[in-house]
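Schema walk-through. Below, the input block comes first and the output block second. Nothing else is stored per chain. Lengths vary across the set, and this one has 606 residues.
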Amino acid sequence: MKKTLSLVLSLLVLLSVFSCLGVSVSAASPADVMYVQSSGVSAGKLTYNIYLKKNISLVGTIVKVVYDPSVLNPVSGGAHSSASSINGIFVADKVKGTNNAYSMAFVSMDSYNVGSTDKAFMTVTFDVINKNYPTTSVSFYCVEFNTTDTSKKIEKNDSNPPLIQTISQATLGKTSYVGVYSIEKGLRVEWKATPGATGYNVYKNGAKIGSTGASKLYYDDANVAANTSATYTVRAYNASGEDSVSTGLSGYYVPPTSKVAVSIQPTGIKVGWYLVNGATSYRIYRRVINPDNTRSGWTYLYAAGAKQTSYIDTNKLVNGTNYEYTVRAYTDKGASAVCRYAAIRYYEAPTVSVKAVTGGVQVSWNKIMGAQKYNIYRMYNGAKSWSYIATVDASKLSYTDKAAVSGRNIHYTVKAVGDNGMSAYVSKKISYVGIPHITGVSNIAGGVQVKWNKVANATGYRIYRRAAGEKSWTYLTTVSGSAVSYVDKNVKSGTYYKYTVRTVFYSMFSGYESGLLVRHIATPKLTSISKSSAGITVKWNKVAGATDYRVYRRGAGQGTWTYLGTVKNGQFTDKNVKVGNYYRYTVRAVGGYYSGFDSNGLVIKR
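--- output ---
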């Protein structure tokens, strides 16, 4: 006792001496000289080792450890076995006036040279007194560090010492089970999350068979024979190791039927399945698939015998409802998984409507609850059978038949399609004349030109115009079925016009598009061209509605026009010309839209 007290007193004196050694204060940090590593939890104890970095000549140091006293209780501190040659005094105790700080000091009178590799020179051990916390953190502070190398010295600071390191360490409790049950191919063992676990090891009949990460709380064992049992143990683990062994949990594997099938029958819905070896009975369940694709709970329907392979459900079936069925095999030791499904419904026939649109015939129908897709069919007058033309998914309620032949009477129908089932159908007839698609409306030298795509079997096209402020279309003329354009010459410059076209098939007319808009800007009339010392001047008449005029030039032998500039008056002087060259000029008016232009223009030699 006297010897121990003498050592402690010597330590206190030495610590006082440390604070007087050296005059200069360095900027050294704990990271320059030491670090901490955890040895993990073993037998309920948590151990940390404090390492000196290589090439350090240690005289003495004081380390303070801060911990959670509700989780940890300090046991001891001491010189590390790998540093047993250190000649000094080590003291470990709680810091006075605290219940969560643990102080350690080491003194070497002759100094201790670490050598060329890092060495652990202090060890602190805690009892883990509470394992219900996911993690516990321990912080290490350097109160003082004395060394023969003054650049690495850390001055004493009891009140606010620098941090060496904080280490968060997981603690583990025993794994809690949810259960063991049959799945499609084997048995699944399921458990609850263990605080602090980084993963789980799974054992079967005492032998390890696999591992999972911390977020996966089940394990599927496919290596189990049908109609046999197995016992499973799950142990949580982290960097500290596994938890203590939990009691095992047993399960019995019953395989599922290999197939469930359903079909519509005159009296209801037929459910069929394959027999399972060892099964003593089968139970049939049904649930409703809602419009938002959610499912209701399973409803038990019927218990079938060991040799029965089908059942007809007549239990309050509702037309238009989507049903899903499953079958479970049962033995006296357990049941199979619910993993075979079959869905079907009483599909009502879609109500079909048809109309001509640009590019074909649009077929539309009402939404049929539970339909997974729709099949569309076409039949021309005189044909003996329907022709399948397309399938669309359940999110679409219309389809445009772009291959429909104009000038024919056509029948259309739609069938709703689901698993192993298809609706009845009703047809709709249309006398189809294709709507021409207007490809362009533009000003040209002679007026406004309208263009459209050719429609098969057209005998003619009717052209319509509507001026600004007019509410109805004005019929202009009918052109032949081979025409694909028309020039409206009876137009006024500065006026807005909209044009549309209808196909003619003998006495029948197509629908029409909403039309394309243009503002007619008349083509400027070139009045003169002259040369002067300044260049070449071209003049023209102004047109109504024009705000600007764009001038173009084409030299001798050139095939395309070159834009020269834009002016607001009725003349333009081209100064960039050469004596002896021929030049041809033309002008376009601009007023929100471009006018046409005189393709010949006026020509002159400079």
